[in-house]
Specification:
CATH architecture of the largest domain: 2-Layer Sandwich
Shape: globular
Number of helices: 3
CATH topology of the largest domain: D-amino Acid Aminotransferase, Chain A, domain 1
Order of helices and strands: EHEEEHHEE
Number of strands: 6
CATH superfamily of the largest domain: DNA ligase/mRNA capping enzyme
CATH class of the largest domain: Alpha Beta
Helix content: 10-25%
Strand order of the largest sheet: 1-2
Distance between the termini: 34 Å
Number of domains: 2
Strand content: 15-25%
Largest sheet: 2 strands, antiparallel
Structural class: alpha+beta
Length: about 130
């Protein structure tokens, strides 16, 4: 069982929310794909209490040979988060998510996983 997000990208490689909404009004959207970002269960084993780093490693193993309809989201570590965030803003991305490596899975908001939004896209979220 995966946790992820359905995505359609524009020609610039960025998520295109308008195209994603439009795909629900027609039959099929071959350009849509899944960005999985967590593995919750594998072969009947509940992984939600495992640390994020372990779940991420398993997710990468499971999806190593996935077809193009599933694309594992990029993970960056051991870098200055402020630099990564500023670059995401420059690129016009919606933001970044920071996760504690030792965190367990929880649905909903958590202090262990923080979404930092690009204020140009989400005006009420602050500044880059």
């Amino acid at each position: 069982m995966l946790d992820g997000e359905g995505v359609i990208c524009g020609r610039d490689g960025k998520s295109d929310f308008d195209r994603m909404r439009a795909c629900f009004s027609r039959n099929g959207a071959p350009e849509a794909f899944l960005y999985p970002f967590d593995l919750l269960e594998l072969d009947g084993r509940d992984l939600r209490n495992e640390p994020w780093a372990r779940r991420r490693a398993l997710l990468e193993q499971v999806l190593a040979d996935a077809d193009p309809g599933i694309r594992i989201c990029e993970h960056i570590e051991d870098v200055d988060g402020a630099v990564v965030f500023r670059q995401a803003c420059v690129m016009g991305l919606e933001g970044i998510v920071a996760k504690r490596r030792d965190s367990r899975y929880h649905s909903g908001r958590s202090r262990d996983w923080i979404k930092i939004k690009n204020w140009r896209i989400w005006p009420s979220s602050g500044r880059c």
